[in-house]
C-alpha cells in the first residue's frame, strides 16, 4: 500500500515537468506583458521598457525558465507582480472559496444524481426514465454561465431570495457562507449531476441484470435491499470514478461560474492573472492545480478499495 | 449501520443547504438594519481591478478612481477643469513664470495622525517628478524647496504655463503623503497608503474589494464643492469598492440592491434600468474613442492616406454602433471639450465627419493605394472599441479597400500596437485630458504607439507650455488643433460617456474623470 502511494507520487514528477514546460511556453508565447498592464494604456514605451527590465522580463526565455524552475525545486513558486504576496499565499487565500464551492456543488450533484440514476435504472424505458435522462442531457448541454445567469435572474433579481453575487468566508457564519454559494453551486453542479446520473443509471442497469441479483430476487430478498445493498454498492466503482474526475474539474474548472458570481476562487485567480499577465501566478497556480488533480485521483483510487474489497491493494 | 449514518450525513447536508436560504433572510435583515444604524456603508460594484494603489505608478483609471478618495494634492480641478487649491491655502506664480509658491493649509492631518509639514510636501513632490510621466517629461530640471515652515516653492528653469494644471491632473496625481511613506516606497510603489483625504485606506483584498473608512479628523475646505475641488464631506462610514468584472453581475446586483453604485453599465442595458424606479442612471462625459494610425511604417505613413480615411468616415454611424443610443455620445471635433473653456476651439470642425467618399477615393488614389491589406487592431474587452472597429472596417471596405480586423484581448493589443510592422490602425479610448500636452499622440518625443512625428505640432506644444498667459496658450492651441487635422495622428470619433447607475436613495454623486463618492448621502 505504502509502496503504491509512493509510486504514484513519484509518477507526479514527469507529469509536473511536462506541465511546467508547456505552461511556461504557452504563457510566454502569448503576447502582452505585465509591465504595460501595470503602467496603464497611456504609458510611454520607454517607461514600459524600463519596468520590463526591472521585472526581469528582458532576460532570454531559457534563463527566465531556469530561474523559475530552480525556484520551484526549492519550493518557491514565485512572487505576484500585482498582489504583493507569494504565489503560494495567493493560491492558499483563493483556495477556500473554490473548495467550499466545489464541495457544495459535488454534494448537490450527488444528492440529486444518484437517486435519479437509480430510479431511472429501475424503471428502464418508462416515461420517468426517459424524462430523467432527457433532463440530464439538458444538464450536460447547458453551459454553466447560462444556467448561472438564469438562476441569478430568477432567484436573485426576481424573487430576491438569494444574493446576486459575492462571497462571504466561513468566518462570517455558516449560513451566510452557504447563502452566497447556493446559486453558484447549483450552476456548477448541474453538469456533474447529469454525468453522475447517467453513469449511475448505466452502471445499475448492468448490475441489476447480473445473476446474483436474480438469485437474491428469487430468494425473496426485499427489493429495497437488493437495490441499495446488493446493486448500488457493486455499481459504485464507475460512479466513484466519475465523481472523482468531476471533483477535479470542479476545483480547476470553476473559472466561469466564479466570474459570473464574483467568487474569489482559484478559477477567478487564473482568469484575472491571465488578464493582467501575472506570469508567476498563472504558472504557479496551474502547477498547483495539476498537483491537486493528481492527488484527487489518487484518493479516489484508494477509495476503490474501501468500497470493493476485490481491488484492495494490501493483501497480507 | 454505516449506511444509516451516511444517510443521515447526507440528510443533514441537504437540510443545511435548503435551510440556509430561510435562515439567511433574517441574516440579511439584521445586516441591512445594521447598515442603517451604522450611518452608511456604500457598496460600489467597480468594473476593473487596480494594478496598484500607488497613484503615481500607473495611468490605470481604476487606481485613479479609488485613490482620489484617500489622497489629495496641492491643487486640483473643479468641474470646468480650472485649477483650485486643495492642500495649498493659496499659490502665487512669479512674473517670469519660473517660480510658483504654494502656501500650505495649516493643521492638515494625515491618516496616521501626523500633521502635514513642508518636508512631507517636498518629499512627495520630488517623488512625483521622479516617477510620473508628466514629472519626467516636464519637471526633471525643476525642484521643490521648502520656504519657511509653511510654504513650498517650485523652481523651474523656464516658464511653464501649464505647470499648475499638470500638478492638478487627477491621472498619476501629485498626491501628498508623509515623508516616511515616500522614503519607504520601492520600485513596486508605496508600501503604505496614507493620505489626507476624506476616506482612509483600510484593506485591499486582491480580486475582491478595497475597503475605505471615513477619516474622522478630515478638515474640509468650506468653499463650494465642484469637481474634485472645494468642500468634501464623508457622510458614509465605509466604502467598499467591490471588483465585479462581469457586466451582467453588476447589472443584476444594482437591481437587487446588492450594490449601491454600479460603474460602467453596458450601454445596451441602460434602457432596461431607466424603467426601474429603484435605480438612477448617471450619464457623464468621459473622453473619446478614435482610431490611431501607424505613421511609422506601412500605408498610413503617407498623410494623404490618413486624410482619405478622415474624408470617408461617417462618425455618427460609428458612434451609434458603439454606444447604441444618441444620448450616450456627442458629435464633437474638438480635442478639448466645451467645459474646458480655457482651451476649447472651433478650428478643424470642417475636417470632421466629412462623409465624402469621392474625396476619399481621390485621396486614396493619390496615396497610391493598390489593394494592400489594411490591418485594424481592436479588443473585445471594450465592446465600444470593437463595435466601432467593425463599422470603420465596413466604411473603408466601401471605398474599395481590403481591410482585416484583428481582435485580441487588451493586454495582447497593448503589445501588438507597439510593433510598427504588424498593423495599420488600432482603436482605443482616451480620457479627457486637462492640458493638450497630455495627449501622447500630439507629441513626437513620447514615441507612443502610432509614432507621431510632426515638428509643427511639437513646436506648438512647446509654445503652449511656455505661453505668457492662458489666452496666448489658447491661441496656440487653436493652431495646434488646425495642424492636428492636417497631420491626423488619430481620428476622433466623437465624445463618449460612461453610465454609472446608483440606487435611487443615493444622493450627491459627483463625476469628473470618474466617480466621486464624497458628499454622497444614502437616504
List the keywords.
heterodimer; A: mainly alpha; MetI-like fold; 0% strand; B: 523 residues; alpha+beta; D-Maltodextrin-Binding Protein, domain 2; Dipeptide-binding Protein, domain 3; 11-stranded mixed β-sheet; 4-stranded antiparallel β-sheet; 21 strands
Structure summary, number of beta strands of chain A: 0
Category from helices, strands and their pairing of chain A: mainly alpha
> Which pair of chains forms the biggest interface, and how many residues does each contribute?
A-B, 63 and 57 residues
Instruction: State the fourth-level CATH superfamily of the largest domain in chain A.
Output: MetI-like
Structural write-up:
The complex is a heterodimer of chains A (316) and B (523). By secondary structure, chain A is mainly alpha-helical. Chain A has 2 domains: 2-73, no CATH class; 87-311, MetI-like fold (Orthogonal Bundle), CATH 1.10.3720. Chain A contains 14 helices and no strands. Chain A has helices at 2-10, 12-29, 34-39, 45-55, 61-73, 87-122, 127-141, 144-158, 174-208, 211-218, 223-252, 255-260, 266-275, 279-307. In chain A, α6 packs antiparallel against α11 and α8 (144-158) crosses α9. Chain A is globular, with a radius of gyration of 24 Å. The model of chain A has no long low-confidence stretch (mean pLDDT 85). Chain B is α+β, with helices and mostly antiparallel strands and 523 residues long. Chain B has helices at 2-38, 61-67, 118-131, 133-138, 163-168, 179-183, 247-256, 270-274, 303-312, 315-323, 357-366, 383-398, 410-416, 455-466, 470-487, and strands at 41-46, 75-77, 83-85, 88-93, 99-104, 143-147, 151-155, 199-205, 209-214, 238-243, 261-262, 279-293, 329-330, 373-379, 402-408, 425-430, 490-503, 506-507, 510-511, 515-516, 521-522. Residues 13-38 of chain B have low confidence and may be disordered. At the A-B interface, α3, α4, α6, α8 and α9 of A face α1, α7 and α13 of B.
Amino acid at each position: 500500500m505504502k509502496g503504491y502511494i509512493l509510486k504514484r507520487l513519484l509518477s507526479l514528477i514527469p507529469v509536473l515537468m511536462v506541465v511546467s514546460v508547456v505552461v511556461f511556453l504557452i504563457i510566454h508565447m502569448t503576447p502582452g506583458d505585465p509591465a504595460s498592464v501595470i503602467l496603464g494604456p497611456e504609458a510611454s514605451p520607454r517607461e514600459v521598457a524600463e519596468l520590463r527590465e526591472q521585472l526581469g522580463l528582458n532576460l532570454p526565455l531559457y534563463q527566465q525558465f531556469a530561474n523559475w524552475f530552480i525556484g520551484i525545486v526549492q519550493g518557491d513558486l514565485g512572487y505576484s507582480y500585482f498582489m504583493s504576496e507569494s504565489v503560494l499565499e495567493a493560491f492558499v487565500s483563493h483556495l477556500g472559496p473554490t473548495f467550499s464551492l466545489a464541495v457544495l456543488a459535488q454534494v448537490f450533484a450527488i444528492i440529486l444524481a444518484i437517486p435519479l440514476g437509480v430510479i431511472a435504472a429501475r424503471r428502464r424505458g418508462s416515461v420517468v426514465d426517459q424524462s430523467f435522462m432527457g433532463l440530464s442531457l439538458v444538464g450536460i448541454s447547458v453551459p454553466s454561465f447560462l444556467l448561472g445567469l438564469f438562476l441569478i435572474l430568477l432567484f436573485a433579481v426576481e424573487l430576491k431570495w438569494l444574493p446576486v453575487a459575492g462571497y462571504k468566508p466561513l468566518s462570517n457564519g455558516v449560513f451566510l457562507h452557504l447563502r452566497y454559494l447556493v446559486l453558484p453551486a447549483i450552476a456548477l453542479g448541474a453538469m456533474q449531476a447529469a454525468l453522475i446520473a447517467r453513469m449511475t443509471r448505466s452502471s445499475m442497469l448492468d448490475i441489476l441484470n447480473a445473476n446474483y441479483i436474480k438469485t437474491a430476487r428469487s430468494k425473496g430478498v426485499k427489493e429495497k435491499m437488493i437495490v441499495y445493498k446488493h446493486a448500488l454498492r457493486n455499481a459504485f466503482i464507475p460512479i466513484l470514478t466519475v465523481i472523482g474526475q468531476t471533483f477535479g474539474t470542479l476545483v480547476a474548472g470553476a473559472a466561469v461560474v466564479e466570474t459570473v458570481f464574483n467568487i474569489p476562487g482559484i478559477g477567478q485567480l487564473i482568469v484575472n492573472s491571465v488578464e493582467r499577465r501575472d506570469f508567476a501566478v498563472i504558472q504557479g497556480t496551474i502547477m498547483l492545480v495539476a498537483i491537486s488533480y493528481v492527488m484527487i485521483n489518487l484518493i479516489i483510487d484508494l477509495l476503490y478499495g474501501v468500497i470493493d474489497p476485490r481491488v484492495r491493494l494490501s493483501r497480507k | 449501520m454505516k449506511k444509516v449514518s451516511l444517510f443521515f450525513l447526507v440528510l443533514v447536508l441537504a437540510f443545511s443547504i435548503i435551510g440556509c436560504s430561510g435562515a439567511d433572510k433574517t441574516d440579511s435583515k439584521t445586516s441591512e438594519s445594521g447598515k442603517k444604524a451604522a450611518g452608511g456603508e456604500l457598496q460600489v460594484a467597480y468594473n476593473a481591478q487596480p494594478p496598484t494603489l500607488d497613484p503615481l505608478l500607473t495611468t490605470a483609471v481604476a487606481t485613479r478612481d479609488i485613490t482620489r478618495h484617500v489622497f489629495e494634492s496641492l491643487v486640483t480641478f473643479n468641474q470646468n477643469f480650472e485649477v483650485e487649491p486643495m492642500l495649498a491655502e493659496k499659490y502665487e506664480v512669479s512674473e517670469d513664470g519660473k517660480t510658483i509658491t504654494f502656501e500650505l493649509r495649516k493643521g492638515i492631518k494625515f491618516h496616521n495622525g501626523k500633521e502635514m509639514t513642508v518636508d512631507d510636501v517636498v518629499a512627495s513632490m520630488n517623488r512625483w517628478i521622479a516617477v510620473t510621466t508628466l514629472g519626467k517629461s516636464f519637471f526633471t530640471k525643476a525642484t521643490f524647496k521648502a520656504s519657511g515652515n509653511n510654504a513650498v516653492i517650485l523652481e523651474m528653469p523656464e516658464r511653464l504655463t501649464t505647470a499648475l494644471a499638470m500638478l492638478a491632473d487627477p491621472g498619476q496625481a501629485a498626491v501628498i503623503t508623509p515623508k516616511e511613506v515616500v522614503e519607504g516606497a520601492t520600485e513596486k510603489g508605496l508600501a503604505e497608503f496614507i493620505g489626507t483625504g476624506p476616506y482612509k485606506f483600510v484593506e485591499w483584498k486582491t480580486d475582491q474589494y478595497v475597503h475605505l473608512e471615513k477619516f474622522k479628523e478630515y478638515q474640509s475646505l468650506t468653499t463650494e464643492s465642484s469637481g474634485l475641488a472645494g468642500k468634501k464631506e464623508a457622510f458614509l462610514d465605509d466604502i467598499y469598492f467591490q471588483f465585479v468584472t462581469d457586466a451582467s453581475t453588476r447589472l443584476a446586483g444594482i437591481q437587487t440592491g446588492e450594490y449601491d453604485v454600479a460603474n460602467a453599465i453596458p450601454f445596451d442595458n441602460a434602457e432596461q434600468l431607466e424603467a426601474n424606479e429603484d435605480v438612477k442612471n448617471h450619464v457623464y462625459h468621459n473622453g473619446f474613442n478614435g482610431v490611431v494610425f501607424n505613421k511609422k511604417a506601412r500605408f498610413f505613413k503617407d498623410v494623404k492616406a490618413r486624410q482619405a480615411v478622415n474624408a470617408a468616415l461617417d462618425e455618427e454611424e460609428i458612434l451609434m454602433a458603439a454606444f447604441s443610443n444618441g444620448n450616450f455620445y456627442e458629435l464633437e471635433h474638438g480635442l478639448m471639450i466645451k467645459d474646458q473653456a480655457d482651451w476649447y476651439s472651433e478650428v478643424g470642425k470642417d475636417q470632421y465627419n466629412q462623409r465624402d467618399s469621392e474625396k476619399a477615393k481621390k485621396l486614396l488614389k493619390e496615396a497610391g493605394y493598390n489593394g494592400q491589406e489594411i490591418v485594424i487592431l481592436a479588443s473585445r474587452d471594450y465592446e465600444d472599441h470593437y463595435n466601432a472597429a467593425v463599422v470603420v472596417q465596413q466604411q473603408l471596405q466601401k471605398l474599395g479597400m481590403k481591410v482585416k480586423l484583428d481582435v485580441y484581448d487588451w493586454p495582447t493589443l497593448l503589445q501588438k500596437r507597439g510593433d510598427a510592422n504588424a498593423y495599420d490602425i488600432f482603436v482605443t479610448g482616451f480620457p479627457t485630458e486637462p492640458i493638450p500636452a497630455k495627449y501622447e499622440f500630439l507629441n513626437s518625443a513620447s514615441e507612443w504607439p502610432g509614432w507621431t512625428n510632426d515638428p509643427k505640432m511639437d513646436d506648438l506644444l512647446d509654445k503652449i507650455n511656455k505661453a505668457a498667459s492662458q489666452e496666448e496658450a489658447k491661441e496656440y492651441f487653436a493652431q495646434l488643433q488646425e495642424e492636428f487635422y492636417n497631420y491626423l495622428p488619430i481620428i476622433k470619433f466623437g465624445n463618449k460617456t460612461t453610465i454609472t447607475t446608483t440606487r435611487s436613495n443615493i444622493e450627491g454623486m459627483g463625476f469628473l474623470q470618474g466617480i466621486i463618492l464624497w458628499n454622497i448621502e444614502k437616504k
